[in-house]
Write a structure and sequence with these properties.
The protein has helices spanning about 10-15, 40-55, 60-65, 140-150; strands spanning about 20-25, 70, 75-80, 90-100, 105-115, 120-125, 130, 155. The protein is of the alpha+beta class. The strands form 2 sheets. Strands 1, 3, 4, 5, 6 and 8 form a 6-stranded mixed β-sheet that branches. The protein has a two-stranded antiparallel sheet with strand order 2-7. The protein starts with 8 loop residues before the first helix and ends with a strand.
Length: about 160
C-alpha cells in the first residue's frame, strides 16, 4: 500500500488548483428515495470528470482498451459526503489533484455547489496493469507525458 498514499480531506477541501472542472445537474435518476444523491453517483461524477480530463489530455481511452495491452483499473475509491445534493441542483465536479507514481495514478476530486460550498470529496487510485497477465506494470511514458501536461505531479519529481 506504500505506492498508494491517501490524500487528506484538507488537501481536497482546500485545494486552490483545479485541473479540470465540469458543471452538471443532479438528475432525477441520481437521487434515492430520501431525495438526496445516491451515494454511488458521486463516484460516477468523479469518474466522469476524470474521463473528460483524459480526453482533454489527448488520451484515447477507447483505443487503449481496444488495443488490450494495458489498463488502469481501480485499486481504491472513496468519498466523503459533506452536504446534500438534490434533484435539480447544479453542481461542479472538480479534479483537484493527480499524482503519478511508477505504477499508479492517484486522482483527487470534489463536488461543490455553484455557490462554492464543497458537498463531497473523494479519491481514487488507478493501478497500471498488463491486461494479458493482469500484473502490475509501469505507466506508459506517453500517458505520463499527457497527464503531466494537464497538471499531474510525478511523485519524486521536484
Amino acid at each position: 500500500m506504500s505506492d498508494r498514499p491517501r490524500l487528506s480531506p484538507d488537501e481536497l477541501l482546500h485545494a486552490t488548483t483545479v485541473l479540470h472542472a465540469e458543471p452538471r445537474p443532479v438528475r432525477f435518476q441520481d437521487v434515492d428515495a430520501a431525495g438526496i444523491i445516491y451515494f454511488a453517483r458521486v463516484l460516477e461524477y468523479f469518474h466522469d470528470a476524470f474521463l473528460s480530463l483524459l480526453r482533454r489530455a489527448g488520451i484515447d481511452l477507447a483505443a487503449i482498451l481496444r488495443e488490450g495491452k494495458w489498463g488502469m483499473p481501480l485499486g481504491h475509491a472513496e468519498a466523503d459526503y459533506l452536504g446534500p445534493m438534490r434533484f435539480g441542483d447544479d453542481v461542479v465536479v472538480e479534479i483537484v489533484k493527480l499524482t503519478l507514481s511508477e505504477r499508479s495514478l492517484h486522482v483527487g476530486a470534489r463536488v461543490r455547489s455553484t455557490e462554492g460550498r464543497v458537498l463531497a470529496i473523494g479519491q481514487a487510485v488507478h493501478v497500471c496493469i498488463d491486461r494479458e497477465t493482469f500484473r502490475s506494470r509501469g505507466v506508459p511514458e506517453a500517458t505520463v507525458a499527457a497527464l503531466t501536461a494537464v497538471g499531474a505531479q510525478v511523485r519524486g519529481a521536484g
